[in-house]
Predict the structure.
Amino acid sequence: MTTTSATLERNIDTPAARKRWTVAEIEALFELPFLELVYRAQAVHRAHFDPQAIQRSTLLSIKTGGCSEDCGYCSQSARNDTGLARERLMPVAEVIASARAAKARGATRFCMGAAWRGPKDKDLEPVLEMVREVKALGLQTCVTLGMLKDGQAAQLAEAGLDYYNHNLDTAADFYDQVITTHTLQDRLDTLDKVRGAGINVCSGGIVGMGESRTQRAALIAQLANLPTPPDSVPINNLVQIPGTPLAGAGALDPFEFVRTIAAARITMPASHVRLSAGREQMSDELQALCFMAGANSMFYGERLLTTDNPDADRDDRLFARLGLRPV
Ligand code: SAM
Ligand code: DTB
Ligand code: SF4
C-alpha cells in the first residue's frame, strides 16, 4: 500500500482520527527523507507540547540481578554471565534517601526498577511502602517490577502509584529471538491490568538489537495501537553488555535511532517520548536531533539501572546550550 502525505496528515492530529496504524504506514514514515521526517515530527510535537520542555525521571534499581528471565539484552538475567552481583531488595530508607537526592537535583519522577519476572506478594508490601513514601516527598512515582498478578495493580494504585513501566521491547516476530521465558502477550496482559487499575502506562522498547526496520516500525505500531497510547514511551538504544547474547549486535545507524523517535512522536502525538537508555554513548548533537524529532523526556542522573547515564552536570550544560527547559 502506498501512503500519501494526505493520509499521514489525517492520522496524526485529532483524537477523533485515531485509528490503527499499519506497519506499512509507519515504515513509510521511516522511509521519508530524514529532514522531512524530522520536520513533520517537530510539527506534531509543537501542536501538543511546549517544544522546550523536557521531563526528567530518575531511575533506581531497588532489586538488582539474579532475574529468572532470559532477556538477551539484560545485565540482570541470571542466565547471562555479566559479573553483576545479585542483591536483595533495597531497604525502604535507602530508597527514600535516593529519591530525596533525585528531587533535590531536579527530577520530577522517581522510577524504581526490580529484576523480577514479577513481584511475589511478600515482595510487594515493601514496594508499596516505597511508593507511599516517595509520593509523600512530592515526586511522581513509577515502578517497573515485571509481570503483575491479579490484584497487584490495584494495590499499587491504592498506594498512590502514578506510572507503571512495562516495555513491549520489540516486534512480535522478533520477540522470541530476544526473550523466551515470557511472551509479548504476557506483557500486553500486564499492561491491561495496569490500565484497568487507573495507573498511567509507560511502555516502549529497545532498538539496535539486530531487528529490521520493518520490525522497528512494527514495535511502534504495537505501541501506538494499544487500547490507549502509553502516557510515556521510552525508546532505548541497546546498551551492549559484555556477557549478554546481544553484546556484539551491529550498532544502529544513529539517524535510524532518530527516525524511531520521530515515528513514535508522529504516531503517539500526545505521549511523552523518552530518549532513554544509550544517551551515555550519544553525542550532544545526536541528542539535540532526538529532541528535534520530538523526544521530550529523559532519564536524569548518573545511573540507569546497572549502567551509566550522563552526569546531571553534563545534562544541565546541554539544557543550557540548547535553551531547553527541564521540568
Ligand atoms: N524486570 C522488569 C521488566 O523486565 O519489565 C523491569 C526492569 S527491566 C531492566 C526494564 C527495561 O529496561 C526492559 O524492558 C528493557 O526495555 C530495558 N533494558 C534493559 N536492559 C537494557 C539494555 N541493556 N539496553 C537498553 N535497554 C535495556
Ligand atoms: C526503560 O525503558 N529503560 C530503563 C527503564 N525503562 C527501567 C532501563 C534501562 C536499562 C539500561 C540498562 C541498565 O542500566 O541495566
Ligand atoms: Fe529480568 Fe527485566 Fe532484565 Fe528481563 S529485562 S532479565 S525481566 S530484569
Remarks:
- Residues 102 and 314 are 16 Å apart (CA to CA).
- Residues 73-74, 113, 115-116, 144, 146, 166-167, 169, 206, 236, 238-239, 241, 277, 305 surround S-adenosylmethionine (ligand 1) (CB under 6 Å).
